[in-house]
Amino acid sequence: MNQPQENELLAAQSPPTPDQSPSPSTEVAGSDSASRFPLAKIREAQTTPALLLSSKMWWVTLACLLLAFWLTWRSIPAHGPTIVIQFPEGFGLKSGDAVRHRGIDVGTVSEVVLSDDLSQISAMVTLTPEAAKLAREGTRFWIVRPQLSLTGVSGLETAVGAKYIAVSPGDSSGAVRKSFDGLAIVPPDEDNDNGIDIVLRGDGRHGVTVGSPIAWRGVDVGQTLSIHLSPDARFVDIHARIQPEYSRLLRSTSQFWVTSGLGVDVGLSGFHLSADSLSSIVRGGVSFATPTTSDDPSPVRSGQMFVLHEKPDAKWLTASTSLPLIDFKLPPTVMIHGSRKKTLIGIPRTQQFSMNGLVLQRDAATLELLTAADALPKGVDSSDAANEASEEFRVESSTTNFSATLLLQKKLDTVNKHAAPDNYIWLVSNDLKGNFATAKSTDLRQPTEPEDCCVCRSVQNDGAAVSVIQSISRDQITANETSWTISLDTSDIASWHGAPVVAMADGKIIGVFIASKSGAKISILH
Amino acid sequence: MARHLSCHSCGLIHQIPDLLPGQRSECTRCGSAFAPPGCRRTTSSRTAAAAIAAFVLFWPAVLCPILEIEKFGIRQQSSIIGGTIELLRHGSWLVGAIVLLFSVVFPLTKIVLLLELSLLEFLHKRHKATTLHIMEHVGKWSMMDVMLLAFLVMLVKLGNLVHFEFGPAVIAFILCVAMSMVASISFHPHAIWEDAE
Known about the structure:
The complex is a heterodimer of chains A (526) and B (197).
Chain A: H1 3-13, H2 24-29, H3 33-36, H4 49-52, H5 57-75, E1 82-87, E2 98-101, E3 104-114, E4 121-127, E5 140-144, E6 147-149, E7 152-154, H6 157-160, E8 164-168, E9 179-181, E10 196-202, E11 213-216, E12 219-229, E13 236-242, E14 255-258, E15 262-267, E16 270-275, H7 278-283, E17 286-289, E18 304-309, H8 314-318, E19 333-344, E20 347-361, E21 367-372, E22 391-397, E23 402-406, E24 424-429, E25 439-440, E26 453-461, E27 464-472, E28 477-479, E29 483-486, E30 500-503, E31 509-516, E32 519-524
Chain B: E1 3-6, E2 13-16, H1 40-63, E3 67-71, E4 74-78, H2 80-89, H3 93-119, H4 125-140, H5 144-158, E5 163-166, H6 169-186
Antiparallel strand pairs in B: 1-2, 3-4, 3-5
Helix pairs in contact in B: 1-3, 1-6, 2-3, 3-4
């Protein structure tokens, strides 16, 4: 409505205006051109990117950009291979549940679906990149669920929480696979990596169940794995596994019998009740013994069959064969009782100490004593040992109960210089003569890496010496440069101080046990 | 030429005298500062920088897992978008829509509009006015910061019941809130009309 008026107003204000809609030709042809052309708008130059980027705030933007990229990159989970596991039963497994190996998550269940024929479930599992090696031939999977039995409770954490899939890795050289068949039950041999598998054939089950203990003199040394009927259905075959550390107890002459239940014997002499452990009452059990025979019993290999007797023969129990758990001779150890005279503010006093040691026959004339370095007082080396005429050692061989008192201080010439207090030393003596059992140089070995070993010493038993050992597993050892720190769960380490450490593999001496206030360690031979 | 500006705080119209370098003009009534002439470049640059930072951080904040809850051994990761979708899927349409609108859509709109106003020179006056209008309305309802408060409440209340950890999105989220605040603070509505005067 206002349009024409506005135009008029504009027309009135503007100075020399031609008519409202002039034709170009008339305009050019018309009067003074300078006043008639419209004045061009003056405008600031466009903001250049350089000017726009002038603010320091752009550095913050850059930082935020980098941060955003980093956060996004980090939250994208690294995926390993995806595998499919078929289970006969799901036990409430859901997507998002974990796959665990040795207590840590190695993958997640991404999907659980029913198979086409409704007889199985398939779980899609995404493994972590580190656990990619699990996707190999021979790996076994099973669903962990709470299991209550009279001998123990397992999988309790899954009673309230989520179920998870447990893994038992197969051979690392196996072929890579994407599809697996899960196990319906927990494999009974999960914890045992190796051992001796045997078959016990009996005429009945006699109360033995899967998981029953196999005992040697009441100590569990194995477990039954499965129970089947023999092919002709006349016998019951019980498959069992003996733990590897006890496999030496098993010989071809070993006799097995059932120890299930309670034995009640009521006679004129009274009432006699015999029972094994509570577990074997409930779950049944098998015991075995290896009686002495005239011929040397041969060791057993996996797969050998034994007869399972219903009752033990009295002879089996009384006839005890010496079946050492170690198959090498323990080195002869000695006790070193020393006394050192000290002068404390002018008052002489004698300090007694004793430690384990080993006498080594270096050559025909030289005997050396291997023991902990603190047998010598601190700061003593070969040069000033002669002045230190206060050291006195008495070496006691426990094999013959022989004692020899001697002074070593004159023969310290070849003692290791600068032996650290937590190291081992060789004390050399030309005098140390007597009826000693000695080790030879060939009994020594320099270990390269932690291995299963045991520390041994002698104890007195009615005047005779008996060797005792404490085994140290490789898992307990932390290797350092010249020593191995060991985590022992016993507080009794002081009595082993200075004792030789023997390798389980070949029986060679590989180091000296050092007990100090900070803990136990092995000073390895070098 | 004297400029006339209304105080952005109390609305009183002032005549702005020509200023020497180092001086600035203030409102006689409330004492708040007027945008100096030529402030367009610096403010828009700063606003754009902050808005871009907020825009970039917005996506990890919304999409990455923000919470990791572990309850009885069940581990759950959830992002803001994932949580909203979960709400909608469970049939809580109202709550889901509110969360989606006020925590995702409005903040994003605000950031984008701020970016548009500060960066683009060639917008038509009418377009600028509309954009500014929308931004002022949307900005009021952009409530990302409220979400932070919700997390804080959860931390205090549920800390003993369940074990939970903040995911990487929390850092992005906090920074995004901070950067969008910086952007709206440094944004000067007067400055965008400077060219048009």
